[in-house]
């Protein structure tokens, strides 16, 4: 955003000016929340809480070279996700089937699938599987991978959001991706189908979906 610091300064004096920041960053924050929860309504709630906390604490934000407002805002968002997972019994779970108004992920668009050489349903299955396996990582690794691959943040940006050294971030990414690869291979591995003696002499396999 052009003149972002000026907009922020105005928002500190006039909350209505905060609307410009909301318009610019709503979709990135919502995308992060949805990727972390897989729940449209919950993502909306956490996104709203993130912006509420940002507006409430905007007076604390001070521009620092290399630390953009985006990083400060995402740090608040990461904190809201942490609060949710610590207190999720207080939240009402809503499945994506109950929220048809959700905007389709770019990953599921046919044109994107075609560019990757895969049909839409196959790509959708792999993305859904990846999101499911992502939940088997610890919360820190989930946040880092989501910021890196879903929110398209650079390692330096993630370092500012999470408050870790860049080398540590890279190490977490390496270990987490390696673990996901193993989990994905196990999930897609052929599973022997039990065949009664005498019915068939050849091995039969099926694939888990």
Describe this protein's structure.
The chain has about 210 residues and is mainly alpha-helical. The chain has 2 domains: about 1-105, Rna Polymerase Sigma Factor, Chain: A (Orthogonal Bundle), CATH 1.10.1740.10; about 135-190, Arc Repressor Mutant, subunit A (Orthogonal Bundle), CATH 1.10.10. The chain has 9 helices and 2 strands, in the order H-H-H-H-H-H-H-H-H-E-E. Helix 2 (about 20-35) runs antiparallel to helix 3 (about 40-55) and helix 7 crosses helix 9. The chain is globular. Residues about 90-120 and about 195-209 have low confidence and may be disordered.
How would you summarize what this structure contains?
The chain has 209 residues and is mainly alpha-helical.
Secondary-structure map:
Layout: H1 4-13, H2 18-37, H3 40-56, H4 69-86, H5 110-115, H6 120-134, H7 139-150, H8 155-162, H9 166-188, E1 190-192, E2 205-207
Antiparallel strand pairs: 1-2
Helix pairs in contact: 1-2, 2-3, 2-4, 2-7, 3-4, 4-8, 7-9
**Largest sheet, strands/sense/barrel:** 2 strands, antiparallel
Please state the overall shape, judged from the principal axes of the Cα atoms: globular
CATH superfamily of the largest domain: RNA polymerase sigma factor, region 2, helix turn helix motif
The helicity comes to 55-70%
Broad CATH class of the largest domain: Mainly Alpha
The CATH architecture designation of the largest domain is Orthogonal Bundle
The total strand number stands at 2
Query: Segments where pLDDT lies below 50 for 5+ residues?
Result: 91-118, 195-209
Instruction: Quote the average pLDDT.
Output: 76
Instruction: Supply the helix-strand structural class.
Output: mainly alpha
Please give the alpha-carbon distance between the first and last residues.
43 Å
Number of continuous helical runs: 9
| Percent of sequence in beta strands | under 5%
Give the strand line-up of the largest sheet. 1-2
Compressed to H and E, one letter per element, the order equals HHHHHHHHHEE
In the CATH scheme, what's the topology name of the largest domain?
A: Rna Polymerase Sigma Factor, Chain: A
Instruction: Evaluate the radius of gyration.
Output: 21 Å
Overall domain count? 2
């Amino acid at each position: 955003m052009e003149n972002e610091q000026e907009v922020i300064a105005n928002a500190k004096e006039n909350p209505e000016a905060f609307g410009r920041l909301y318009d610019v960053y709503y979709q990135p924050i919502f995308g992060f929340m949805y990727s972390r929860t897989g729940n449209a309504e919950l993502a909306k709630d956490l996104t709203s809480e993130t912006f509420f906390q940002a507006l409430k604490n905007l007076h604390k934000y001070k521009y620092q070279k290399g630390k953009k407002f985006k990083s400060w805002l995402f740090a608040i968002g990461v904190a809201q996700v942490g609060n949710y997972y610590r207190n999720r019994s207080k939240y009402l779970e809503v499945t994506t089937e109950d929220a048809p108004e959700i905007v389709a992920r770019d990953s599921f668009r046919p044109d994107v699938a075609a560019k990757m050489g895969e049909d839409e349903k196959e790509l959708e299955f792999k993305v859904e599987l990846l999101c499911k396996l992502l939940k088997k990582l610890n919360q820190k690794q989930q946040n880092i991978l989501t910021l890196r691959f879903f929110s398209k943040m650079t390692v330096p940006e993630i370092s500012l959001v999470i408050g870790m050294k860049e080398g540590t971030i890279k190490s977490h990414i390496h270990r987490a991706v390696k673990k996901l690869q193993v989990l994905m291979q196990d999930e897609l591995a052929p599973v022997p189908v039990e065949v009664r003696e005498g019915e068939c002499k050849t091995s039969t396999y099926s694939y888990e979906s």
